[in-house]
Amino acid sequence: MRRIVASFEHRAGGAGGARRWWERATAALDGTGSRPKPAARAVLANALALVHFPERGDVDDLAVLVEEHGRHEVAELQEAVLGAVDGRDRPLTTRLVRVLAGYAWARPGAPLPADGRAGLAQVAGEAVVRLLMVGDATGERPAITGTGDLLAVFERQGIRVWRALVAATVDDPWTGSAERHLELLDPDAQPFEVASIRAVLDLSRREAEQDERRAVAAHIRSTIDQTGLTQREFAALVGTSPSRLSTYVTGAVTPSAAMLLRINRAARRAQPAVDPQSEEPEQPEQPEQPEPSV
User: Which fold has domain 207-270?
Assistant: First the structure.
């Protein structure tokens, strides 16, 4: 972490825009104790280095940060440390996305050209998408009816609009707007734009599938708990091994539709019987009283 900070400070020197942003952002960090300071300072130094004087070594440093702290955690830190000093339209964060996207998907003329290292290009691409998935996504979505409208979003808009569009894909990754936008593009003529949208779409679908697997695992755990049986007893009831059932319970494996039906049916058969003694006696139905005659 110290090496990343030292590398940035050496290049920033004693003055200039990079140094001023660093001083403002570190002052904002010092005023809050909500995040580990070494990690936040390293993420800030790396982000400002990529924004102001990107070098391939800065992508290496980003990969180190991701490996140590996690992809989503680094994105949240980038959003926090830049958001503390970035303006309403988020020029710093927009610039960071542009630099990393150019490296990830080989955009011609990008400030950090790709060098053929597929692993680092993947790190940069996922960092872009995850940064677009955190933070405020309430920006206005532009009307996109043709290829020109879509290309204008890439060229002239910033992260507030991009996040609003990404949020729409996250909400509906299977039949949403991203597929329609891809239909407007020619992969040969606009490879950068196609790769960008596909990256958002792929990660959104992976996240949705993970959520679905977690939901199925939670359903199975709840179903077994309601029977009062141990996992070993319930496994015998559905005709599988305890170790196999354990993979369903933890979410490591998602059962087939047929197995899920078998689990549900077995659980219904195994529901504890209600003790008749504990039931409240049913009150006899009272006969209707005739209305009084006048």
Answer: 434 Repressor (Amino-terminal Domain) (1.10.260)
